[in-house]
Amino acid sequence: MEAIRILLVDDHALVREALAVQLANWVEFEVVGMAEDAGAGLNVAVELKPDVIVMDIDMPGIICFDAAERIKSRLADVKIIFLSSALHDHYIESALKAGASAYLHKGEPTETLAMAIREVAAGGNYFSDEIRSRIVEKDGSYSLADGAKLRSKILTDREIEVLRYLARGLTKKEIAGLMHLSPKTIESHSARVMDKLDIHDRVELARYAIREGLIDA
Amino acid sequence: MEAIRILLVDDHALVREALAVQLANWVEFEVVGMAEDAGAGLNVAVELKPDVIVMDIDMPGIICFDAAERIKSRLADVKIIFLSSALHDHYIESALKAGASAYLHKGEPTETLAMAIREVAAGGNYFSDEIRSRIVEKDGSYSLADGAKLRSKILTDREIEVLRYLARGLTKKEIAGLMHLSPKTIESHSARVMDKLDIHDRVELARYAIREGLIDA
DNA sequence: AGTGGATTGGGGTATTTACCCCAACCCTGT
DNA sequence: ACAGGGTTGGGGTAAATACCCCAATCCACT
């Protein structure tokens, strides 16, 4: 049996190395490369063509989902496993949209990660229990269940764009300038975002955006 | 030579186990226990009396500094090493006040952690370069340098209290009600906080409070 | 062809914020 | 005894926010 070739992506050298050593306990795994951010992960991935990419998401925004999507478009066969300490619906949804084969909590023991790797390498999926209860399968692809969608009420692209500016403390006038729109339009988007999220002031909005990983604190 | 007995505290099972395996590469280290949060760490520490405690700080507020302080008061000889992916002045200051012997960034390679462990076990200290530039030594104990203190300007108790409410999105009127004070007083505190921190809107204030661990996102 | 959602924008208003001024009071340290 | 910092509050103003109303455009879906 051939080894499952693994690429690790995590911005913490300590965690990265530690995971690599851990996975070396399984003879069927071979960690062929590591990268310290999603961008580097993309480059290394196309170069090494691993079977499975284990990608840590937590800190620096949503670029990892972006990178994952681009990786999948170039290497259709690669399986992506997301590791996270947060289980926000937005993360889960983005991961699923990016074509993740697995999503698991960092709190799980290494055995679970090993199982997930074997599972996805064989063409399957793995999702932690808390996540499985929030997603639905359809034609072999997964998406957020409606219940969860209601919780992470679906914001449109434009709304999310405005939300990110709002949550960084820009005034509506400033945002209007940046987006080449009327302040009144920003006002409209802002009001609809607040309505959808049932949030009624900017501070709560900012905290929401931080929790959902839309911006850093 | 006797082994250095180590206790690992990290809320991610994956990271915890991975670190343990990593440290097993050094014969002079013995990981005698692990805990998944600061509270459990306190209990395990008094039970096992390790030489060194490696404690991860990132997520759940400031309890770890609290726990660290209590551990130090019960086991004066134990050395505490903090791991963090953030280098906020408030964290550093809290860690130093709690009696940390080392503080290092998670981005460092495992060798650096090993070095730090050896160093503190021998009675020394270890701080990453970025940190060493921000702290000063005095009579064997360390504290934040004035420059850094200027950046994390010293807020009074009352100011911090008001800041925490402000950062949670309460209006000044609501805060005044909660604290049995005039809205004008809250206004005064708020203005002084913004002045000291050189922050000019509530959203930035909230993000500051979240970064500093004063509130959760 | 027509419905609906997304995007864009305007009018108006009440509340809240940020910022300026000022001044008591109390407590602590010299 | 006196200075200085912390805490408490007031008056006033300009800006920003939250929230209500409404409507034109455009694009996709059936």
Structural class label of chain A: alpha/beta
CA gyration radius of chain A, whole angstroms: 19 Å
Compute the number of helices of chain A: 11
Number of E strands of chain A: 8
Instruction: Give the DSSP E fraction of chain A (strand runs of 2 or more residues).
Output: 15-25%
- Give the proportion of residues in helices of chain A: 40-55%
Shape of chain A: elongated
**Quaternary class:** homodimer
Major sheet attributes of chain A = 6 strands, parallel
User: N- to C-terminal separation of chain A?
Assistant: 46 Å
Greatest contact between two chains? A-B, 36 and 36 residues
The helix/strand order of chain A is: EHEHEHEHEHEHEEHHHHH
- Mean pLDDT across residues of chain A: 84
Spatial order of the strands forming the largest sheet of chain A: 2-1-3-4-5-6
Residue windows where pLDDT falls under 50 for at least 5 positions of chain A: none
Question: Which key phrases capture this entry?
Answer:
homodimer; 217 residues; alpha/beta; six-stranded parallel sheet; two-stranded antiparallel ribbon; 8 strands; DNA-binding
Give a description of the structure.
2 copies of one chain form a homodimer. Chain A is of the alpha/beta class. Helix content of chain A is 50%, strand content 18%. In chain A, strand 1, helix 1 and strand 2 form a beta-alpha-beta unit. The longest helix of chain A is centred in the last third of the chain and has 15 residues. In chain A, 40% of the residues are buried. Chains A and B meet through helix 1 and helix 11 of A and helix 1 and helix 11 of B. The first copy, chain A, binds a DNA duplex (30 and 30 nucleotides) through helix 8 and helix 10.
